[in-house]
Amino acid sequence: MQKAFEAKQSLMEENRVVGKHIYANLYGCDVNVISDEKKLSDIVKEAAKLAKAVLYELKVWKFGGDKGGVSVIGLVLESHIAIHTWPKYEYATVDVYTCGAHTDPWCAFKYIVSQLKPKNMSVNYADRSSPVIT
After folding, report:
1. 17-127 CATH
2. Does the pTM of the predicted model rise above 0.90?
3. pLDDT tens digit string along 10-48?
4. Which in 49, 72, 82, 83 has the greatest CB count within 10 A?
5. CB count, 10 Å around CB of 25?
6. Structural domain boundaries of the chain?
7. Which residues contact 128 (CB under 8 A, 6 or more apart)?
């Protein structure tokens, strides 16, 4: 019975897009980390590995002005990993969206949080999977 259930689950996953999306607001982050372009880039690279995603391209921007910060976007073959920061406010937003049953966005997210060291956060999850095609 268990093998039949597992075979059905496997077939269902083959006939749909499996999308997993974690997005969060992180408050009271380590300012030294969230203002460091290189460190944030390294965090996204490692997060992609931990998610079992393939990093395709990485872009980094540092913004000036009163609310300036850093944005890092890792385009992975399975979707994206993004961190946007506002050091003046000790604030960051994190977005980890992966497609494919083989990926684990929660591992990537937990790693990012461990590096940014927020004092508080609000976390959201959305199942962004397609319907099963029969």
Report:
1. 3.60.90.10
2. no
3. 545 567 878 899 999 999 999 999 999 999 999 999 999
4. 83
5. 14
6. 17-127
7. 17, 19, 20, 21, 97, 99
